[in-house]
UniProtKB/TrEMBL annotation:
Residues 143-157 have a biased composition (Low complexity). This is PD-(D/E)XK endonuclease-like domain-containing protein. Residues 26-46, 143-164, 378-401 are annotated as: Disordered. Residues 31-46 have a biased composition (Basic and acidic residues).
Length: 516
C-alpha cells in the first residue's frame, strides 16, 4: 500500500508543479531572465533559452531610469483600465519601473501616437477621435453562462453580436467590443504636450489648402520578396521644396516619388528562381545589403551626433508591442508628424551600366569583396596615391579586372527619406546603431537614387540611427578620392575633433577624439 502511495504521490506532485510553473513565470520575475548589455545585444537572456522573440524588449538601450543599470528582471504586471504594463525590478537599486518614459497616461501609448498622427494628416478633432475609436477596439470573450444571458436579451440591447451566430459551436461565445472613446479635449492636451515632437503642426494649415486628408499621403504595398509599404507625403514634399529656395532643385525627386506606385519595375525586385540562370528568368537584383561590393574608407569621417530622429524614435517605440513592428511604427510616426520626412520604404535600383558610367565618367572607385587586395606603398616623389586606393590593381572599373564581377542589378528600399538643410538625407533605422557599419548599403542607396533622379551625389547625405545614437557621412567622400589628397589628419566639427580615417577596410572610430 505504501508502495502505491509513493508512486501516485510522486506523479501527483509533478503534475502540480508543471501546472504552477507557467503561472509563476507570467507573474513573477525570474533570475534567469536577466539583461546585461555588456554580454549581449541588450535582450532578455534566459539560461534555459525559452525566451521567445515576442518577449524581447522593443527598445535596445533600455535601462533602469533611476541608476542606469542594465541588469534587471521582470516583476509582474500593472493592470490598468485599458492595458496591462510589464514591470521590471532593478537588480542594483531594487526599484521598480516600466519601459515607458511617458508617465501618467490613462490610454495606451499606441492610441496616443495613433491619434496624434491621424490629426496631423488633416482630420479635425472630432474626426480623429472617431477614427481612433474605430481602429482600436477591445474585445472580451464571455464565458458560456454570460453568453447565454446575452443571447437571451433583445438584439437592440446587445453591445455587439457575434458575426457567425449560425455556427452551433460558436453560439455560446459572443465577442463584446469596447471601443476606446477619446474626448476631443484629451486629444487637444496630447497635441499641446507633444508639440515639440510634432513639428508638422506648423505646416498643417498650409498643407490642407493644397490637399484633402485622404489625398495628403500616397501609399502602395510593394510585393518585393516581402511586403513593403511605400508612403509618400505629397503635401509636405511640395511645401519643403517650393517654400525654401535651397530645396527648389529637388523637383526631380518629387516627380520620382509621385511615379513610384505606377512606374516601379517590380520584376527587378523579385527573387530569382533557384536553378534558373539570370538571363532566363529576367533581371533579378541583389539586395544592397548582399551586394559583393565594397568601398575604400580612407579620407572620410563618420560623425556621431544627437539628432531629432533620436527623440522621435524613442517616443514612437513606446507604442510598439512586437519587435517586428518597430520599422513600421517609426516610419509612420515620422512621416505624419515631423517636418522633413517625405517618404518611407522607397524602392531604388542601380544597374551594371550605371555603375560603369560612374566609374568611367565620374571617377568613382568600387572594389569587390572577394578580390585580393594589393596595396602598393607610396614611394618618395610618387604622386599617384597608390597606397590609398591602389586603383590600378584592385578597382573593378579600371579595366584591369573582369567587369563581370559587377552585379547586373542591385536593389533596395530606403527606410526614411528626408529633405532638410539643402540636402537629401537617406536614413536607415538600425537597432544597436553603434555596433553597425552599413556604409556600403547606404552608399549604394545614394548611388541608385542619384541615377534615378538625375541629381548629383553631392546633394545626398546618409545616416543610420536608433533611439540613442545618430551617425552620418557623405557618400561622395566614400566614392570619390581626390588625387591630391589633403594633408589634414583632423577635422573640427560642432561635436568635437574627428580623426580622418586612414584604414581602407573599416571605420576605426565614429566618435570625436576630443569634445568642445
Amino acid at each position: 500500500m505504501n508502495f502505491f502511495k509513493k508512486i501516485f504521490g510522486k506523479y501527483l506532485t509533478n503534475a502540480v508543479q508543471t501546472r504552477e510553473i507557467p503561472e509563476t513565470r507570467a507573474i513573477n520575475g525570474s533570475e534567469n531572465r536577466e539583461m546585461d548589455d555588456t554580454k549581449g545585444q541588450g535582450d532578455l537572456l534566459s539560461k534555459d533559452r525559452t525566451t521567445s522573440a515576442a518577449e524581447r524588449l522593443i527598445i535596445e538601450s533600455f535601462h533602469c531610469p533611476y541608476c542606469g543599470s542594465t541588469k534587471f528582471v521582470r516583476r509582474g504586471f500593472r493592470q490598468k483600465k485599458r492595458e496591462k504594463i510589464q514591470l521590471y525590478l532593478c537588480s542594483s537599486c531594487q526599484k521598480t519601473f516600466t519601459p515607458y518614459s511617458t508617465k501618467g497616461k490613462r490610454y495606451p501609448m499606441e492610441v496616443v501616437i495613433d491619434a496624434i498622427s491621424i490629426y496631423n494628416l488633416g482630420y479635425s478633432l472630432e474626426q480623429t477621435c472617431r477614427l481612433v475609436s474605430q481602429r482600436n477596439p477591445k474585445s472580451q470573450i464571455l464565458n458560456s453562462k454570460q453568453a447565454q444571458n446575452s443571447n437571451n436579451q433583445n438584439p437592440k440591447q446587445k453591445g455587439f453580436e457575434h458575426s457567425n451566430l449560425e455556427n452551433s459551436n460558436l453560439s455560446r461565445i459572443s465577442d463584446l467590443e469596447f471601443r476606446i472613446s477619446i474626448p476631443p479635449s484629451t486629444l487637444t492636451d496630447w497635441l499641446a504636450e507633444f508639440a515639440e515632437l510634432c513639428r508638422f503642426s506648423r505646416m498643417r494649415s498650409f498643407a490642407l489648402k493644397k490637399y484633402s486628408p485622404k489625398d495628403m499621403v500616397i501609399s502602395a504595398t510593394l510585393a518585393h520578396r516581402q511586403l513593403y509599404r511605400f508612403r509618400f507625403h505629397r503635401a509636405k514634399c511640395e511645401l519643403v521644396i517650393k517654400d525654401d529656395f535651397k530645396h527648389r532643385r529637388f523637383g526631380p525627386l518629387q516627380e520620382f516619388l509621385e511615379m513610384v506606385p505606377t512606374e516601379c519595375p517590380h520584376q527587378y525586385f523579385s527573387r530569382r528562381e533557384v536553378g534558373i540562370p539570370t538571363e532566363a528568368s529576367g533581371q533579378k537584383g541583389l539586395r544592397a545589403s548582399e551586394a559583393p561590393l565594397t568601398f575604400s574608407k580612407t579620407q572620410m569621417i563618420v560623425r556621431a551626433k544627437q539628432n531629432y530622429a533620436n527623440k522621435l524614435c524613442a517616443f514612437a517605440l513606446q507604442g510598439v508591442k512586437e519587435r517586428k513592428g518597430r520599422h513600421e511604427a517609426l516610419q509612420k510616426f515620422m512621416l505624419c508628424n515631423d517636418s522633413v520626412t517625405v517618404a518611407t520604404e522607397v524602392p531604388v535600383y542601380i544597374t551594371r551600366d550605371d555603375i560603369e558610367h560612374m566609374q568611367s565618367q565620374l571617377g568613382f572607385q568600387i572594389f569587390s569583396r572577394s578580390a585580393p587586395e594589393v596595396v602598393r606603398p607610396l614611394e618618395s616623389g610618387d604622386k599617384s596615391q597608390g597606397n590609398i586606393l591602389s586603383k590600378d590593381q584592385d578597382n573593378i572599373g579600371s579595366g584591369t579586372r573582369n567587369d563581370n564581377m559587377l552585379p547586373k542589378l542591385i536593389t533596395g528600399h530606403i527606410d526614411i527619406l528626408q529633405i532638410r538643410n539643402g540636402q537629401i538625407h537617406i536614413l536607415d533605422f538600425k537597432p544597436h546603431a553603434e555596433k553597425e557599419r552599413p556604409i556600403e548599403q547606404l552608399t549604394l542607396y545614394a548611388m541608385a537614387l542619384s541615377r534615378l533622379t538625375g541629381l548629383r551625389l553631392f546633394e545626398f547625405k546618409c545616416a543610420w540611427f536608433d533611439e540613442k545614437d545618430y551617425f552620418e557621412f557623405y557618400p561622395l567622400h566614400v566614392l570619390h578620392k581626390p588625387k591630391k589628397g589633403s594633408r589634414r589628419r583632423k577635422v573640427k566639427t560642432d561635436e568635437g575633433v574627428y580623426k580622418i580615417n586612414q584604414d581602407r577596410k573599416k571605420i576605426l572610430s565614429v566618435r570625436p577624439i576630443t569634445n568642445y
